[in-house]
Structures are given as structure tokens and as C-alpha cells.
Amino acid sequence: MVHEVVHYLRCARGGLFVDGTLGTGGHTLAILQHSPATTRVIGIDRDPEGLAVARERLAPFSHQLQTVQGKFGDLKIILSGLGVRAVDGILLDLGFSSLQIESPGRGFSFQRDDPLDMRMDQTQGISARDWLAHCSQKELIGILKEYGEERWAKRLTGKILAFQSKGPVETTRELAELIAGSIPRGGRIHPATRTFQALRILINDELTQLKSFLGEFLETLKDGGRVCLISYHSLEDRLIKQAFLRLERGLRDPLGMSEPVRPEGQPGFKRLISKPTVPSQIEMQENPRSRGAKLRVGERVGGPL
Ligand SMILES: C[S@@+](CC[C@H](N)C(=O)[O-])C[C@H]1O[C@@H](n2cnc3c(N)ncnc32)[C@H](O)[C@@H]1O
Q: CA dihedral in degrees (227, 232, 234, 239; nearest 10)?
């Protein structure tokens, strides 16, 4: 949804933007191509491999781009490290990139045979292989249910743990075949889709990152600044929808974990579209991965923060 992002961020006006999920730079390229030459983009990604590709692709705009290896959940700290108080627009295009799926050795795709890694930043944290090798039955059932919304969580856990009595699951293919042989194939999606999603979310702490961002992004937007958030599954979209609604109602705590500290009725935020925008038929045909994407957009509208 590149055109929609360019439109909602009002790129033609120019300004200072954050692309918090730079990936290989597709959205940032469009932002820069549709903005005046004074525009600057701070491009953040946790994946050093993706950042290197983005820097090369965006070389013609290098004087307008600052790249940072980091996490969008740390946005306030990152901006303050750059001496930036507030920006005109922020984009997050959540999930994983085509590069991460297609590059050898990353372990995100059940259609490849790679080591079961799944870390977006391979210099930190533990791999999916190591987590699976040491998790308890309760933990595995929990994450398959919560992050994968997998109805066969119990059965799958039994099969995976039984397999691991002989040694860890080492590769994506091993795991995908184990899953396909354990649960019925239902609907259009591959039976391993939900398990891979659950492990990826867990290994990269994706929901914690999103919650942290939702809790503080408003403080990094200028008056009239906009935020565009693209999500790919219901767990993320639900969090975003809930946070936007609470912020619009003037509740300072967008995740509803504590009492509001700002009285209702002083909105500092408004949703620009009440229902999420989804990709056009053409976009879905051209890019099947965009299927399921939802874009929500909001604007900081003043009032004390
Ligand atoms: C769907 S891709 C973005 C693609 C990008 N919009 C483009 O046009 O190339 C998602 C990217 O977000 C990055 N990412 C995911 N979680 C992140 C986080 N918490 N902080 C920073 N980057 C993150 C991934 O490494 C991946 O490169």
C-alpha cells in the first residue's frame, strides 16, 4: 500500500519522516520520490542485512536518509540520540520482509530448507531451534495458541516434543514436515503457517515491540503529524485498533493497562479512517504477500500531551 502511505503521510509537503521498518527500502523510496528535496527520512530496522540492501538501493537519496540499526519499540530513545524531538510522519510496515523469507540461512520460510533460526537480528537473542529445544510443554502450547491461534496446539506440541526426544528440530523443512504429518490440512493455508507465525512472533518479541511503540509514538509526532501502521495478522491489528480508539478518546494509556492520566475530552489524536484500508485486487495479484494487510492511519491533533 505504497500509494496510500505516500498520500496519508502528505509526502508532497515534505518534512521529517520515520520509516520504523525500513526493510529493503521500498516504502522509503516512494516517500522520497514523492517529496521535495528538503525531506529527510530516518530509516530504522533491526535487521543489518536488510539495512545494507536498503542503503544501496537508496544511495541516490543518501543525503536525505539516515539509517539506524535498532527497534521501533525504542523510537523515543533513537530519536533523542539523533537530537530529534518530533517528526511529521511515522510508518511501520510490520512483519518480515521478502529478503528475510528468501535469503538462505534465515529460517523464516517453511518453503525452504534452512536452519530454524527466525531472528530478524541474528546477532542477538536465541534461535527458534534453541528455544524449541528447551521449551516446556506448557510454554509451547501457550505460544501456539496465543501467537499462532492454532487450534491443534496440544496435538502439535505432543508431536514436536516426541520428535525432540531423539534430538532438536534443526531445519525449517523438518519442522514443516513434522507439522504437515501431524494435523489435518484445512483451508488454503499450509498447516505450518500458524506454527511458523507463532515462533517468529515469540523469537522477535514482536508484540512487545508494537506495544512499546503504541505507548509512546504520540509523543514523537509534531502537531498535525501522522502515523501509518500496516499489519498482517489479527493480533497486531487488534492492538493498533484498540490503541487508536483509546488515544482518540483522550486516554493517555493506549494499551489500557492502567488508569488514564489525562482526562477524557482532550483528544490529542484522531483516526483519519475508521476502518482499515486493505490492498487493491491488483496489488494482491502483483504481490500475494500483501494479502491480509491492513493500514490504519491517525494524526496528532494538538492538546497537551
Ligand atoms: C514488511 S518488512 C518492511 C518492508 C519495507 N516497508 C519495504 O518497503 O521494503 C518489515 C521489516 O520490519 C523489520 N522489523 C520488524 N520488527 C522490527 C522492530 N521491532 N524494529 C525494527 N525493525 C523491525 C524487519 O526486519 C523487516 O525488515
A: -30
Residue 215's contacts (CB-CB under 8 Å, 6 or more residues apart) are 253, 254, 255
Ligand 1 atom with the smallest distance to the CA of 73 is 19
Are 290 and 212 found together in one domain? Answer: yes
189 Cα: distance to centroid of ligand 1 (angstroms): 23
The CATH number assigned to the domain holding 193 equals: 1.10.150.170
Same domain, 180 and 225: no
- Substitution candidate for ligand 1 out of 46, 98, 197, 228 with most atoms within 8 A of CB: 46
In a domain, 106, yes or no: no
Distances in whole angstroms, Cα of residue 238 to Cα of each of 68, 170, 230, 243:
28, 33, 12, 8
The verdict on pTM exceeding 0.85 is yes
Do 50 and 184 lie in a common domain?
no
Name the domain boundary from 175, 203, 231: 203
41-91 confidence digits (pLDDT tens): 999 999 999 999 999 999 999 999 999 999 999 999 999 999 999 999 999
Output the ligand 1 site: residues, CB below 6 A.
Answer: 20-21, 23-27, 44-47, 50, 71-73, 93, 95-97, 120, 209
Range of the domain at 191: 121-203
Nearest-atom number in ligand 1 for the CA of 2 is 8
Residues 263, 179, single domain; the answer is no
